[in-house]
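User: quick one, sequence for these tokens?
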């Protein structure tokens, strides 16, 4: 065998494992079925603008170790995630905060907003939310739910809100202050120059084979390494022996516009169910100031802009999976695959697809570091 580890997938989990294993003196081979490294955090430059190829990625964490680790590989700006929701030509700040409530009801104080929301919550009479719809109404009342949550969420997940698990909406902060910062975390930002450089630096000195599908040459690839780190779909690894886990896919339409500033914000959510895309991303605003839209035309300002419409899509074999569907049925099925995985002596499963978990980037970093440290210390 030529390698200590074959790492399937060059996303954040795989790249961190590879980097740390190489530092420990291990010989590593990384393969990826795509024609580029980086997985879903891959960015590329178009018209001088760093484009997030697979949707908006904002790094945020309260874990100082995770923050310091990722900043070894790139300088981060101070970007603050402050999306805007658009409903029938009305614009609302997110997350749900006093700016949202003021626009919604024409009020100005936290007491007024809380009174309206509590009244709507009491009228709904939900004591123990059993699904996303009930959870959302129990948090923000029916007005906010109907305009800003229901349609968007049903598009995103491809199911009625009443059929979705309640935990999904817990990711949305609710605040009675005038604060449009989406995240509560201590640290937040986007790497200046994009995410791809991070993966490139992690994989320096490591053999990487692109356009290489593990399943197309499984036996040969497995014979090259003592152990495998698999970051693809765990059910696919086991040939769907217990049946398919469910995922959601996405489709992206990216275009260059001959204008400096299209929507004035990096992310605008379209919350009406009738509009087929969930959001429009204007990438230059992720690296604000240096890419235009802030008045004046300095030497670093692009006279054009790049936008991406993000469409949710159902998943079937052959499509790219983006989100695991962590409802009760799928979690029970995953538990059966996990039992098989735990019996493996030479295969490690990691990342969103390998662990069937809805991870944000900071969680992937933490999981990858925990995993590789445990493996290398054993």
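Assistant:
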């Amino acid at each position: 065998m030529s390698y200590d580890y074959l790492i399937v997938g060059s996303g954040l989990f795989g790249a961190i494992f590879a980097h740390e294993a190489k530092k420990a003196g291990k010989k590593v081979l990384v393969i990826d079925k795509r024609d580029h490294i980086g997985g879903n955090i891959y960015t590329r430059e178009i018209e001088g603008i760093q484009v997030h190829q697979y949707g908006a990625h904002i790094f945020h964490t309260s874990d100082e170790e995770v923050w310091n680790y990722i900043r070894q590989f790139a300088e981060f700006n101070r970007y603050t995630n402050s999306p805007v929701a658009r409903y029938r030509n009305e614009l609302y700040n997110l997350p749900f905060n006093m700016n949202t409530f003021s626009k919604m009801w024409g009020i100005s104080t936290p007491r007024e907003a809380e009174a309206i929301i509590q009244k709507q919550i009491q009228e709904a009479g939900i004591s123990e939310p059993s699904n996303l719809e009930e959870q959302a109404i129990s948090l923000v009342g029916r007005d906010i739910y109907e305009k800003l949550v229901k349609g968007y969420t049903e598009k995103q997940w491809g199911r009625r809100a009443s059929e979705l698990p309640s935990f999904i909406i817990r990711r949305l902060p609710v605040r009675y202050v005038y604060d449009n910062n989406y995240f509560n975390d201590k640290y937040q930002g986007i790497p200046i120059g994009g995410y791809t450089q991070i993966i490139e630096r992690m994989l320096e000195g490591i053999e990487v084979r692109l356009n290489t599908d593990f399943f197309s040459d499984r036996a040969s690839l497995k014979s090259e390494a003592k152990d495998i780190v698999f970051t693809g779909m765990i059910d696919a690894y086991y040939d769907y022996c217990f049946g398919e886990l469910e995922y959601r896919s996405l489709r992206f339409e990216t275009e260059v516009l001959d204008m400096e500033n299209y929507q004035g914000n990096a992310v605008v959510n379209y919350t009406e169910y009738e509009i087929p895309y969930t959001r429009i991303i204007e990438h230059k605003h992720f690296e604000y100031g240096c890419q235009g839209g802030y008045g004046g035309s300095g030497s670093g300002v692009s006279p054009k802009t790049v936008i991406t419409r993000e469409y949710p899509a159902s998943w079937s074999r052959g499509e790219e999976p983006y989100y695991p569907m962590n409802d009760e049925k799928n979690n029970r099925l995953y538990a059966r695959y996990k039992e098989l995985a735990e019996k493996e002596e030479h295969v490690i499963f990691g990342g969103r697809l390998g662990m069937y978990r809805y991870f944000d980037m900071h969680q992937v970093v933490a999981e990858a570091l925990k995993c590789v440290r445990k493996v290398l210390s054993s």
